[in-house]
Amino acid sequence: MNKIDRRAFLKLSGSTLIGVTLGGVALRVNAQEKITLDDPTAVALKYVHKSAVDGEYCKNCAYIQGEDEAEWLPCSLFAGKLVAADGWCSAWIKKG
């Protein structure tokens, strides 16, 4: 009985890992357009391309997906859009 439970657990764990990985890849692939400052979500979150808050940048925010070295990055808050690595919005949370 324990072997069946262990097997089911391993299958679920593997499926979850694959789903999370592919979800992150899909977000990076779909985000192609740079966000504009007049975008309704950008306005609501007070997004700017250049942060005025020392140490708080899109590139070190928990919502960012992708490489920190890139100039424009996909953000889970702005679906299908890229944000400036040096940008900032009011939803900024330090990447842990």
TrEMBL record:
<keyword id="KW-0479">Metal-binding</keyword>
<comment type="subunit">
    <text>Homodimer.</text>
</comment>
<keyword id="KW-0813">Transport</keyword>
<protein>
    <recommendedName>
        <fullName>High-potential iron-sulfur protein</fullName>
    </recommendedName>
</protein>
<comment type="function">
    <text>Specific class of high-redox-potential 4Fe-4S ferredoxins. Functions in anaerobic electron transport in most purple and in some other photosynthetic bacteria and in at least one genus (Paracoccus) of halophilic, denitrifying bacteria.</text>
</comment>
<comment type="similarity">
    <text>Belongs to the high-potential iron-sulfur protein (HiPIP) family.</text>
</comment>
<dbReference type="GO" id="GO:0046872">
    <property type="term" value="F:metal ion binding"/>
</dbReference>
<dbReference type="GO" id="GO:0051539">
    <property type="term" value="F:4 iron, 4 sulfur cluster binding"/>
</dbReference>
<keyword id="KW-0411">Iron-sulfur</keyword>
<dbReference type="GO" id="GO:0019646">
    <property type="term" value="P:aerobic electron transport chain"/>
</dbReference>
<dbReference type="InterPro" id="IPR006311">
    <property type="entry name" value="TAT_signal"/>
</dbReference>
<dbReference type="InterPro" id="IPR000170">
    <property type="entry name" value="High_potential_FeS_prot"/>
</dbReference>
<keyword id="KW-0408">Iron</keyword>
<feature type="domain" description="High potential iron-sulfur proteins family profile">
    <location>
        <begin position="29"/>
        <end position="96"/>
    </location>
</feature>
<keyword id="KW-0004">4Fe-4S</keyword>
<dbReference type="Pfam" id="PF01355">
    <property type="entry name" value="HIPIP"/>
</dbReference>
<dbReference type="GO" id="GO:0009055">
    <property type="term" value="F:electron transfer activity"/>
</dbReference>
<dbReference type="InterPro" id="IPR036369">
    <property type="entry name" value="HIPIP_sf"/>
</dbReference>
<keyword id="KW-0249">Electron transport</keyword>
